[in-house]
């Protein structure tokens, strides 16, 4: 089994919030994931990188119950992951999507409130989340009228309002400038500092290397490397499969 969760690769002694073991996904004749294992501990930020089509989003989709694996299992906080996406919130899981995934005709505040409508403290949660991403001053604005980086902050605020224990971020830095990327990194570290486990899919390699405790690299659906950011960056297999491509872009 290609398992990235051994003691060398996961020095973090805190309990695993997410544990993926022996995961396989087959779409028709295509093996999108083969024998994938990884863990994210409470308070840990793990980066999941790899070339286009490596299987990163498929792994997220399995964790969220949107794709049924053909092999392996997923545990969240020691229990089997819910097989239905509508049970994720109760399991403490929040996810952001590639791009923005906001409701453009609603206001900023409404976009965040939709995630916590069933909570009696929804107003406080929404206000707190907007504060965390630096957007309280635009709470009443229509999201579709905001610049792209602010729309991405809204999507992050919506996830944070649910007070996740496991946060899945799908390309959160995509399309952002340096200041927004730096702010995002600070927010991610702050969220992790409060005990949330963060799994981060991202093509912005410098961002990944600066914000993550560990990095797992997928290529053609298999884990080809896992470890500390510096180790992974220097790994010849990673350079060949992925980082070389980045440099040449
Ligand atoms: N629903 C599906 N049906 C068939 N094939 C799929 C499906 N979803 C993904 N794939 C294929 O599975 C492989 C992995 O795709 P996936 O989107 O997980 O990769 P990725 O690493 O997230 O790529 P990117 O960085 O471009 O987002 C690709 O070959 C993709 O074409």
Question: How would you describe what is shown here?
Answer:
By secondary structure, this protein is α/β, with parallel strands linked by helices. The chain folds into 2 domains: 2-92 and 164-248, Rossmann fold; 100-160, no CATH class. Helices cover 33% and strands 26% of the residues. The protein contains 8 helices and 11 strands. It has helices at residues 56-63, 108-113, 122-132, 148-161, 178-193, 205-211, 229-234, 236-248, and strands at 2-3, 16-27, 30-41, 45-49, 71-76, 79-80, 93-96, 166-170, 197-201, 214-219, 222-227. The chain has a 6-stranded mixed β-sheet with strand order 7-8-9-4-10-11, sandwiched between helices. It has a 5-stranded mixed β-sheet with strand order 1-3-2-5-6, with helices on one face. A hairpin with a 2-residue loop joins strand 2 and strand 3 (30-41). Helix 3 crosses helix 4. The longest helix is centred in the C-terminal third of the chain and has 16 residues, at 178-193. The chain is globular and about 50 Å long. Bound molecules: adenosine-5'-triphosphate (ATP).
The CATH H-level superfamily of the largest domain is P-loop containing nucleotide triphosphate hydrolases
Structural class: alpha/beta
Any idea what the radius of gyration is? 18 Å
Unreliable residue runs: none
* Small molecules in complex: adenosine-5'-triphosphate
Can you identify the CATH class of the largest domain? Answer: Alpha Beta
Global mean pLDDT: 89
């Amino acid at each position: 089994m290609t398992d990235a969760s051994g003691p060398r690769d996961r020095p973090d002694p805190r309990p695993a919030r997410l544990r993926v073991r022996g995961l396989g996904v087959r779409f028709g004749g295509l093996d999108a994931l083969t024998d994938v294992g990884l863990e994210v501990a409470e308070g840990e930020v793990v980066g999941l990188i790899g070339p286009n089509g490596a299987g990163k989003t498929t792994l997220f989709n399995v964790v969220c119950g949107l794709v049924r694996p053909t092999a392996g299992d997923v545990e969240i906080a020691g229990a089997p992951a819910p097989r239905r996406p509508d049970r994720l919130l109760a399991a403490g899981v929040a996810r952001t999507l590639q791009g923005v995934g906001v409701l453009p005709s609603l206001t900023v505040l409404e976009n965040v409130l939709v995630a916590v409508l069933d909570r009696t403290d929804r107003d406080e949660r929404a206000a707190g989340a907007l504060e965390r991403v630096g957007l309280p001053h635009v709470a009443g604005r229509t999201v579709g009228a905001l610049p792209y980086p602010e729309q991405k902050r809204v999507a992050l605020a919506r996830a944070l309002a649910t007070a996740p224990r496991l946060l899945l971020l799908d390309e959160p830095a995509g399309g952002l400038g340096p200041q927004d990327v730096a702010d995002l990194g600070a927010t991610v570290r702050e969220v992790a500092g409060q005990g949330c486990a963060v799994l981060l899919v991202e093509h912005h390699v410098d961002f990944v290397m600066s914000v993550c405790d560990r990095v797992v690299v997928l290529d053609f659906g298999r884990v080809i490397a896992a470890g500390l950011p510096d180790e992974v960056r220097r790994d010849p297999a990673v350079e060949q499969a992925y980082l070389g491509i980045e440099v040449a872009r």
